[in-house]
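Dear support,

We are seeing what looks like truncated structure output for some complexes. This example has two components. We would appreciate it if you could run it in full and send us the complete C-alpha cell output so we can diff it against ours.
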Amino acid sequence: MDFLQPSSWDEALASRAERPDALPIAGGTDVMVELNFDRRRPGALLDLSRVDELRAWSVEDGAVRLGAGVPYARVITELADRLPGLAMAARTVGSPQIRVRGTVGGNLGSASPAGDAHPPLLAAGAEVEVASAARGTRRIPVAEFFTGVKRNALEPDELIAAVHVRTARGPQQFCKVGTRNAMVISVSAFALALHPDRQAVGTGIGSAAPTPRRAPEAEEFLAGELDWAGRAALPESLARAFGERVAAAASPIDDVRGTAAYRRHSLAVLARRAATWAWDDLRRAA
Amino acid sequence: MRVTTTVNGTERTADDVWPGESLLYLLRERLGLPGAKNACEQGECGSCTVYLDGEPVCACLVAAGQAIGREVTTVEGLAEGEALHPVQEAFVEAGAVQCGFCTPGLVVAAADLLARVPEPSDPEIREALAGNLCRCTGYEKILDAVRLAARRQATR
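Here is the complete output from our reference environment:
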C-alpha cells in the first residue's frame, strides 16, 4: 500500500487520476474503520488532510461553498446561522473526537444511507462540486449524487471539492432516532427546510431507504397547504398527514438497528414534529 | 514509510510504517507509548484519545501518515515531571479509576474540556465525555473527578 500526500488541490487531482486504486481519506472516521477491520485493502491511501483548499468555506451568490474537508466541529461553530439544518445534524454526529475529524465531504464520499449530513443537504437542495484533472469541475444536485447503498455518482478519477448549500431563507430542522444521544448511527433521520421566499418545502430522509432521499410528494403537499401569507398555526391534522406522506416515501428494511415498520413509524413522527417546530419558528420570526 | 512527528514535545521517527496503520498503533507498538489504549478500533470507545495539533481525536481513526509533521500529545505527556495534571490528581482522589482501561482517554478528554471551558456545567461535562465509554460504569465518580478538577483549577 502507498501513502499519497498531496499538498494542493491540483496535486490531489493528478494523484487521483494516476491512481484509480487509491482510496481518498479525509478525517478517517469511516476509512480507518475499514482498514482496522481488514474490510478494505486499497492499493494506496490518498490523504486529503493537507490540501488547504478543502478546509475553507466561503459565501458565493447567496450560497455557502463548503470545502469538502471542513470538519463537523467547524460547521457547528462557524455555520450554524447560515446552514442551521446542517449544523443541527453535525451536532448529532458521533462524539467530540469524531466531530473534529469527520467531514461533510467524507460523509458524501462514503455515501452511507445513514450519513447524518445527507438529509439536511437534500432538504436545502444542495449541489456537490466534484472535479477531475482531465475534465475540470461539475456540479451534481445532491438528490442525484447517491446512486446506491454506499455508492455515489463520482467517476473513478474524480474527487469531491465542495458542497454548495443555499444560505437558509427560513427555519430548518433535523431529527434523528437512535439508542442514545451520542455515538449513534441513526435508526431513522429526517431533515426539513422551509423556503418562505419561494413558498416551498424541502425534505431529506436518512437510514430508511437504500440511499438518502427526498419525499417530493410530501414536500408539494405541505407547501400547497401551508398558510404562507397569513402564517396561521399549523393544524395537527395537517402535520400528521405530512408525516404519513414522508413515511410513504421511505423504503426501509429490517436490520440490526431497527425494523422497517419502526423506521416508517418513527419517520412519520419525526416529520410531524419537524414541520410543527419549523412552522412555529417561522411564525415567531414574523 | 518513514513517519516523523512530535510526540509530547519530542521529535520521534519510526521507519517501515505500514501506510494503512493507525496513529494508535504507531504510538503503542513503535514508539513505546502504551498510555492510549486499543479497544474498539472504530472510534466508539474513546480509550485511544490523544491530542493531534491541540484537538482531542481517536488515535485509532488517524492514519499514521496523517500525523507526519504534526504535534501529538498523549496521556504520558500531561504530567509535568512528577507533578500529575490536575485532572489526573482528581481522578485518583475521587476514585474515578476502577479497572483503569478507559482512564487515559477520559483524562485527555476531560483535560481538553477544562482547558476550553474552565467551569463546565454537568451537561457540558456529559457532552464532552460522550465519546468515552467506561465498561465498569464508573461514570458518577468520573463526573465527580471532573467537577473536583474544575473547582481546584478555579482556585489556583
